[in-house]
Amino acid sequence: MLRDSHAFSGFSTNDIPRAKQFYGETLGLEVTDENGMLTLELAGGGRVLIYPKENHEPASFTVLNFPVADVDAAVDQLTAAGVTFERYPGFNQDERGIMRDQGPRIAGFKDLAGNVLAVLEA
After folding, report:
1. How far apart are CA 58 and CA 81, in angstroms?
2. How far is C-alpha 121 from the geometric centre of its chain's CA atoms?
3. Residue-level pLDDT, tens digit, the chain, 122 residues
4. Is the pTM of this model over 0.85?
5. 8 Å CB contact between 8 and 47
6. 3-state secondary structure (DSSP) of residue 1
């Protein structure tokens, strides 16, 4: 029934203008703003809707993963742009927050509303 539907994901934020700046300027994504909501236009044709929610609570799980060719280079570039990478108790991470021995190399960070994002080596 939904096989041909162009599905997309969405999550909330508590501040649309700040989210637009973070996703558009800090992360360098194409962001459109319509009806008080943001749409992230992702490589490959994917889309993500970010909508305002007054009583927003950050997701406690990763809401968006960015596959990259070189996770070290991505972490360096994002750190230079002001992104801080998370440290997770019980996980083997290096000093920059990269997990290297539990699946693909991956590093998590949060958007300005506290939602968890990640770059992972693909």
Report:
1. 22
2. 14
3. 888 888 899 999 999 999 999 999 999 999 999 999 999 999 989 999 999 999 999 998 999 999 999 999 999 999 999 999 999 888 889 999 999 988 899 999 999 999 999 999 98
4. yes
5. yes
6. coil
